[in-house]
Structure formats: C-alpha cells, structure tokens
C-alpha cells in the first residue's frame, strides 16, 4: 500500500494524536537524579562548569532538594561524595562516617523506602591522585612504570560498597571499570548479609571527553596520565557486549552505558543482547553543560532540546536515565512534550 491510500501524516495531525500513538514514553520515574554531597560546608556550593548544579552539605539543604525531586515524580538519586580528606588508596571512602554514608543515613531516615538510593562506588574522588584504582610501581623489563593495580583496588571498593549498604543504600554502583569488580562486591555484600542490596554496574564506561565538568565538580581529574587503560576505547562497540556479559555473569542487577548521547548505538546493542536486564544510560556532565551553555547564549531552546535528547536515550533502549536535567525535565513533562 502506498500514497494516496497510505498517508502517515494522519497520525501527526494534532498534538493529541501524536501523544496517543507515540512509540516512546518518557516519564519522571525513568530518571535517577545525581547529587554531589560534600564534607565541610554548610550551604550548597554552585558548580561553575555545571550551571544549576550544586555540591550539597549533608543536612536540610540536601533533604529539601531530594524532597523537590520526589514531588515532581523522581523516585531515585545517585550520590557522589566529596570528602574533606583524601589519601593514596582511597581508604577514606570506606569510613562508616564518610560523607556518602552519612547522606544515605539522613535520606533513609527522612524518606524511608519512598526513595531509591544509589551510591557511586569508585575511589577517584577520594584519592590524592584522582585515579579509579590504586597506582603501583612495576618492573617492565629494564624500566619501572606506574600502573593502576586492578586486584588491590577490588579490596577497597568492596569495603566501600559494604559501608554504603550498612548505611542503607538500595543499590551500589561501581564505576571504576576494574575487572572483576562486580564479583568482588557481590561476594562482599553477601558475606556481610546484604544479599538484598543490588548492584548497578557501570558495565560499559568509555574513556570520554564528556566527563570534564564532573571532574571539576569533584576535583577528581587524574593528577598524572589518563584513564584509558581501564575505561573503554570510544572506537569499540562489540567490546561493550563482552563487558556487559562479564558483569551479568558476576551478578550485576542493572547494567549501564556511559556516556549516553554519543553512544546511542551501544545502548541499543546492549539492550538487544540483554533484554531481561534493566539498562541505565548516563546523560553525563558534558552533555548537560553543552545544552546549558548553548541555552544561555540563546542558540537553542533548552526545554525542547533537553526533552529531545532524553527521549532519544529512552528510544535507543534505556530503561533508566541518569541525568542532571532530571528535575527540570520532570517539570516540563508535566506540561506535556513540546513535540
């Protein structure tokens, strides 16, 4: 059947018709709101590289911000810690009284099971060197080199995950791309009795240029070298399936692709390969800040572009979207999609 019998424009004639037949549904409950919590401050600190985003003290300001998210239909948060002190091995991240641990306790007391609490598990923002693993010196033939040691890092992040579970987290989210990280954390959680605490794995995390504003937010950029020896090569897509498969075998409950916008094809590949697993996509800081900067210049309509991007991520196959736009997007969705 073809024109004139078939006229696709009939299904686009009005906003009401377009909404009725839309293939992709975007809801505030699809979002996880990332939040930066910082020790040693008493009021929110603006993040220059991320307009509209703040570092929050553990206290009433944080509670008010999370309450605002819940009121617009967002059910989940992802916490990142900015500690007062840092060390070589990131052991500060394992403290029972750490900034993320205290934030989890506060939010659990305040909101109970109304809120789903995810915590980032990585040592980069807890170390003096800014790497996601512990650097060690190794001999390589006639020379000595510095590498990020995989296995000693697993011990630290496993302890970190357990401390988050003890505080009341629903899910821990290891993000360092260390081999075996899911198995190490799952075994540690189960050994300590936290069999009900889930793992959202940063299973497919690329060595991306889109992370710059985030690193400014936590002052977590590497002090030497880069992260390309453990984060994925942006040229690779099939490798994403290998990484995701390993994490599934090791016990991940939710998979993630990060970043989102430049990797929509990878989101589709992973969802097709693992349809039975919830898939998250991280709409990262650089993607957020580009939209904010262009909107401030008046070059784009922030509302339309943001909702178009989030819809594209959902359409690609993401079940969950981690986004700094979450609260604004949830409010705009209440008004109806602009397309």
UniProtKB/TrEMBL annotation:
<feature type="binding site">
    <location>
        <position position="285"/>
    </location>
    <ligand>
        <name>5-aminolevulinate 2</name>
    </ligand>
</feature>
<feature type="binding site">
    <location>
        <position position="132"/>
    </location>
    <ligand>
        <name>Zn(2+)</name>
    </ligand>
</feature>
<feature type="binding site">
    <location>
        <position position="124"/>
    </location>
    <ligand>
        <name>Zn(2+)</name>
    </ligand>
</feature>
<dbReference type="GO" id="GO:0004655">
    <property type="term" value="F:porphobilinogen synthase activity"/>
</dbReference>
<feature type="binding site">
    <location>
        <position position="324"/>
    </location>
    <ligand>
        <name>5-aminolevulinate 2</name>
    </ligand>
</feature>
<dbReference type="GO" id="GO:0005829">
    <property type="term" value="C:cytosol"/>
</dbReference>
<keyword id="KW-0456">Lyase</keyword>
<dbReference type="InterPro" id="IPR030656">
    <property type="entry name" value="ALAD_AS"/>
</dbReference>
<comment type="subunit">
    <text>Homooctamer.</text>
</comment>
<dbReference type="GO" id="GO:0008270">
    <property type="term" value="F:zinc ion binding"/>
</dbReference>
<dbReference type="InterPro" id="IPR013785">
    <property type="entry name" value="Aldolase_TIM"/>
</dbReference>
<feature type="binding site">
    <location>
        <position position="243"/>
    </location>
    <ligand>
        <name>Mg(2+)</name>
    </ligand>
</feature>
<protein>
    <recommendedName>
        <fullName>Delta-aminolevulinic acid dehydratase</fullName>
        <ecNumber>4.2.1.24</ecNumber>
    </recommendedName>
</protein>
<keyword id="KW-0627">Porphyrin biosynthesis</keyword>
<keyword id="KW-0479">Metal-binding</keyword>
<keyword id="KW-0460">Magnesium</keyword>
<comment type="pathway">
    <text>Porphyrin-containing compound metabolism; protoporphyrin-IX biosynthesis; coproporphyrinogen-III from 5-aminolevulinate: step 1/4.</text>
</comment>
<dbReference type="GO" id="GO:0006782">
    <property type="term" value="P:protoporphyrinogen IX biosynthetic process"/>
</dbReference>
<feature type="binding site">
    <location>
        <position position="215"/>
    </location>
    <ligand>
        <name>5-aminolevulinate 1</name>
    </ligand>
</feature>
<comment type="similarity">
    <text>Belongs to the ALAD family.</text>
</comment>
<feature type="active site" description="Schiff-base intermediate with substrate">
    <location>
        <position position="205"/>
    </location>
</feature>
<dbReference type="Pfam" id="PF00490">
    <property type="entry name" value="ALAD"/>
</dbReference>
<dbReference type="InterPro" id="IPR001731">
    <property type="entry name" value="ALAD"/>
</dbReference>
<feature type="active site" description="Schiff-base intermediate with substrate">
    <location>
        <position position="258"/>
    </location>
</feature>
<feature type="binding site">
    <location>
        <position position="227"/>
    </location>
    <ligand>
        <name>5-aminolevulinate 1</name>
    </ligand>
</feature>
<keyword id="KW-0862">Zinc</keyword>
<keyword id="KW-0350">Heme biosynthesis</keyword>
<feature type="binding site">
    <location>
        <position position="122"/>
    </location>
    <ligand>
        <name>Zn(2+)</name>
    </ligand>
</feature>
């Amino acid at each position: 059947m073809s024109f004139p019998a078939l006229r696709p424009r009939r299904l686009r004639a009005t906003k009401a018709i377009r909404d009725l037949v839309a293939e992709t549904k975007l809801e505030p409950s699809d979002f996880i709101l990332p939040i930066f919590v910082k020790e040693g401050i008493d009021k929110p600190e603006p993040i220059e590289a991320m307009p509209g985003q703040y570092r929050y003290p553990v206290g009433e300001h944080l509670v008010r911000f999370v309450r605002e998210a819940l009121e617009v239909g967002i059910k989940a948060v992802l916490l990142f810690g900015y500690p007062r002190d840092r060390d070589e091995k990131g052991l500060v991240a394992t403290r029972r009284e750490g900034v993320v641990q205290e934030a989890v306790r506060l939010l659990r007391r305040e909101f109970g099971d109304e809120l789903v609490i995810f915590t980032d598990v990585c040592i980069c923002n807890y170390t003096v060197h800014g790497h996601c693993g512990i650097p060690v010196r190794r001999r390589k033939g006639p020379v000595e080199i510095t590498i990020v040691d995989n296995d000693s890092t697993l011990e630290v992040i496993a302890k970190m995950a357990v401390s988050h579970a003890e505080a009341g987290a629903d899910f821990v989210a290891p993000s360092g791309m260390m081999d075996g990280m899911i198995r190490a954390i799952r075994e540690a959680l189960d050994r300590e009795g936290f069999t009900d605490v889930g793992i959202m794995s940063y299973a497919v995390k690329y060595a991306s240029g889109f992370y710059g504003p985030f690193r400014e937010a936590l002052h977590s950029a590497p002090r030497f070298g880069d992260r390309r020896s453990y984060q994925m090569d942006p040229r690779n897509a099939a490798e994403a399936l290998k990484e995701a498969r390993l994490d599934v075998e090791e016990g991940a409950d939710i998979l993630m692709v990060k970043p989102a916008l430049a990797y929509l094809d990878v989101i589709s590949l992973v969802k097709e390969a693992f349809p039975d697993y919830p898939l998250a996509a991280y709409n990262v800081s650089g993607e957020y800040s580009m939209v904010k900067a262009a909107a401030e210049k008046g070059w784009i309509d922030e509302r339309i572009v943001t909702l178009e991007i989030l819809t594209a991520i959902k359409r690609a196959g993401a079940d969950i979207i981690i986004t700094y736009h979450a609260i604004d997007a949830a409010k705009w969705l209440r008004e109806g999609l602009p397309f």
